[in-house]
């Protein structure tokens, strides 16, 4: 079976762009990826277009990819539309890898795009309402929020303003972690402060202002223990990757020095498990599969991008990826182990909390960052000597964990 390489990446800034359409952002990201790769659009043999909420936001429920890609001349090839909640883009990336491994062509495009920001705030926040079983959504939300029962909410620690119901769910996960392992709000704040410091060096990040732990703790509350900087914002944006087979690299005369090998690409769905059974979390199981596929372990990773829709997400995921023992994610973050220059830098891009989270583009946004790191092209946020990199991207909720999770390992 052929090796697969990422030969080009492109990404728009993430943020709030009232004047840009899905087509605009898709075109910008794909054009950047094609230019980065040196591949002409007519050499692409297949495309996977990831998007989660355009149907909800604009009523474009079908053929989103065919419409977004046609205007840039990408037509007459298989175009597959991918929706897997916040894991849509990493799912599309994995499908592009599989498309090439199956011998369907030499070159494939994976692109994710999302336009989420709207002046209609009820419409905007309700975009997340189908990220779980809608047949009993209120019951599911309450059950997940109740995971942290027993941790007292300080007075004034809940926002009076509207926010996504998923923040209550993440707060439930955070309180369960606090109750089980003794994790503190200060440790979650350390994650957020670190990511905001990283994003100050990322020109494509939605927020670029560094913050201290104290500033994060004193920021407006969302729902305990989460404050505003600990939570990913509503974002617009797109990201794209061009993938090639090893033979395709040769046939198209591409520069092998800038090609980054896909060493593993794993997609799993969640399972029924007790909330406290962290060792069978779907991301941990996906990570174990990815390490086996790559022939590597956590100790071989130079840098990671993980799904920190809130700061608690990063704490949980660095434990799932095996960087620290279960329960040590918070203390390790406070010790600075996950900062650039630390033992295992996590989210040098700024992560979802600060870089932004256009859900259908997020997973390929992570790939963009890791490819940039592995090429040594990340500037002031460069992780020195990066050789292997891992991305974790989750989507939706079912039971007591994400409905889907992707773990991708890239390397020189």
From TrEMBL:
One Gene Ontology term of the molecular function aspect: acetyl-CoA C-acyltransferase activity
Residues in Thiolase C-terminal domain copies: 282-398
SUPFAM superfamilies: Thiolase-like
Superkingdom of this protein's organism: Bacteria
CDD domains: SCP-x_thiolase (cd00829)
Protein name, per record: Thiolase
Upper classification of the organism: Bacteria, Pseudomonadati, Pseudomonadota, Alphaproteobacteria, Rhodobacterales
Coiled-coil stretches: none
Gene3D superfamilies with a match to the protein in the record: 3.40.47.10
Alphabetized Pfam families for the sequence: Thiolase_C_1, Thiolase_N
Organism: Litorivita pollutaquae
Domain (Thiolase N-terminal): residue spans on this chain: 4-210
């Amino acid at each position: 079976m052929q090796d697969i390489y990422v030969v080009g990446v492109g990404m728009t800034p993430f943020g709030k762009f009232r004047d840009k359409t899905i087509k605009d952002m898709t075109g910008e990201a794909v054009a950047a990826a094609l230019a980065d790769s040196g591949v002409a659009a007519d050499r692409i043999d297949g495309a996977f277009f990831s998007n989660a909420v355009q149907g909800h936001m604009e009523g474009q429920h079908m053929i989103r990819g065919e419409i977004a890609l046609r205007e840039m001349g990408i037509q007459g090839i298989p175009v597959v539309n991918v929706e897997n909640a916040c894991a849509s883009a990493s799912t599309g990336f994995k499908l592009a890898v599989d498309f090439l491994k199956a011998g369907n062509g030499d070159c494939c495009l994976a692109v994710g795009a999302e336009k989420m920001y709207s002046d209609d705030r009820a419409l905007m926040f309700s975009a997340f309402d189908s990220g779980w079983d809608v047949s009993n959504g209120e019951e599911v939300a309450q059950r997940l929020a109740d995971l942290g029962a027993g941790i007292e909410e300080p007075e004034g620690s809940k926002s009076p303003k509207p926010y996504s119901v998923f923040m209550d769910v993440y707060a439930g996960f955070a309180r369960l972690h606090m109750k089980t392992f003794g994790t503190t709000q200060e440790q979650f704040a350390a994650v957020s402060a670190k990511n905001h410091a990283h994003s100050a060096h990322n020109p494509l990040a939605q927020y670029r202002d560094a913050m201290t732990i104290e500033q994060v703790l004193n920021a407006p509350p969302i729902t305990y223990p989460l404050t505003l900087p600990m939570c990913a914002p509503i974002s617009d944006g797109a990201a794209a990757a061009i993938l090639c087979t090893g033979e395709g690299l040769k046939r198209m005369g591409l520069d092998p020095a800038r090609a980054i090998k896909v060493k593993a690409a794993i997609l799993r769905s969640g399972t029924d498990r007790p909330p406290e059974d962290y060792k069978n979390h779907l991301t941990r199981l996906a990570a174990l599969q990815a390490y086996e596929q790559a022939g590597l372990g956590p100790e071989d990773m130079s840098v990671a991008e993980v799904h920190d829709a809130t700061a608690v997400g990063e704490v949980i995921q660095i434990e799932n990826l095996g960087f620290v023992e279960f329960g040590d994610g918070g203390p390790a973050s406070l010790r600075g182990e996950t900062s650039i220059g630390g033992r295992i830098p996590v989210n040098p891009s700024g992560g979802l909390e600060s870089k932004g989270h256009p859900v259908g583009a997020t997973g390929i946004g992570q790939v963009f960052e890791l490819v940039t790191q592995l090429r040594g092209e990340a500037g002031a946020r460069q992780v020195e000597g990066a050789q292997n990199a891992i991305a974790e991207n989750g989507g939706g909720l079912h039971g007591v964990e994400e409905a889907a999770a992707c773990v991708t390992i890239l390397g020189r």
